[in-house]
Amino acid sequence: MKRYWIETYGCQMNKAESESLEYRLKEVGWMSAGAPWEAGLVVINTCSVRKTAEDRIWG
């Protein structure tokens, strides 16, 4: 079974986009992984408008 992991940083719109992507992945047969290293697909969804979301990723 194909597994995915989605990390979301940023605003509420990012969270909604990640939820939409997750719904579509499940529609086509993907399952959520328990951890990123178990996934065949890792998505990192960040905000391109605000730099603070990017800063949180890198510490």
TrEMBL record:
<dbReference type="GO" id="GO:0005829">
    <property type="term" value="C:cytosol"/>
</dbReference>
<dbReference type="GO" id="GO:0051539">
    <property type="term" value="F:4 iron, 4 sulfur cluster binding"/>
</dbReference>
<dbReference type="InterPro" id="IPR038135">
    <property type="entry name" value="Methylthiotransferase_N_sf"/>
</dbReference>
<dbReference type="GO" id="GO:0035597">
    <property type="term" value="F:tRNA-2-methylthio-N(6)-dimethylallyladenosine(37) synthase activity"/>
</dbReference>
<dbReference type="Pfam" id="PF00919">
    <property type="entry name" value="UPF0004"/>
</dbReference>
<protein>
    <recommendedName>
        <fullName>MTTase N-terminal domain-containing protein</fullName>
    </recommendedName>
</protein>
<dbReference type="InterPro" id="IPR013848">
    <property type="entry name" value="Methylthiotransferase_N"/>
</dbReference>
<feature type="domain" description="MTTase N-terminal">
    <location>
        <begin position="2"/>
        <end position="59"/>
    </location>
</feature>
<dbReference type="GO" id="GO:0046872">
    <property type="term" value="F:metal ion binding"/>
</dbReference>
